[in-house]
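Q: Structure tokens for this one, please.
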Amino acid sequence: MKALRIDKTDSGSSAAFVDFYEGALMPGNVTVRVSHSTVNYKDGLAITGRNPVVRHFPMIGGIDFAGTVETSDDAAFAPGDRVVCNGWGLSETHFGGYAEKARVKGDWLVRLPDSLSEHDAMAVGTAGYTATLAVMALERHGLTPADGPAVVTGAAGGVGSFSLMLLKKAGWHCLAVTGRTAEADYLRDLGAAEIVERAELSERGKPLGKERWAAGVDSVGSFTLANLVAQLRRGGAVAACGLAQGMDLPASVAPFILRGAALLGIDSVYCPRARREEAWARLARDLDRDKLASVTRTIPFAEVIDAAHAILEGTIRGRVVVTIP
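A: Here is the predicted structure, written as tokens:
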């Protein structure tokens, strides 16, 4: 079968398409015939070697996949079941979705809702699933649209695009933060009521700023996340799920002790199955399929490496679905 394998080199790592054998797949109790995968920011890091996210070599890339169960020793799944897999170390410590077949633990899989196709599932992918977990976390914190507006950083990216769609569907007034002002119409179509220039938040700011928003979804980190928290309304919260600007958080305790601000961490990788199923059910119910199509493009497997470079260069808008031959 065809697979995209990442190998260790003297200078770091390299990625190439190879012929692979099912018998060489890593241990697991469910084998899935993969039909679709995606290209996420983390995939870009793994394929290009720009960041050492791969921790086992050789590695099959792809942090998520959708497909049909071929064989199963897990009572929860049977041949023919349509499933999706996100996280769990795929493409880091366990072979991922850039191959015609994947073998994983049944505990990692979620059965797809009937209304979602495998293509839909990967148009959503880790990005949409993570955005859903973030919106659910804000709601569990008790926040509602009546509390004030919601802000979304990295709004033209995958997590940002889905966050806007889901927040708009839930009735929020949304502010979209982006450095790509040419994407303003695209962001408004997804649900943004206002566009905020990225430069307003990407540099060191005041420890406590003007109260601007009640909720936020951040996929950027660093100064941007610190500024989001500093400008939260009293009792507000930001769900943090990314680090595109950096892993650091140059923030002050002031918003936390003077306004009761909350920072909600989103772990999409090892999230338990019950919450994953809740997230996928929410997506099946609330996601606008026309808007999903508008933020998605589909590429053949052979174009994955090019797409990995493009996503790190910030030239990809929305989602990329990969068809696996």
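A few notes: The mean pLDDT is 95. Residues 2-112+295-323 form a domain with the Quinone Oxidoreductase; Chain A, domain 1 fold (CATH 3.90.180.10).
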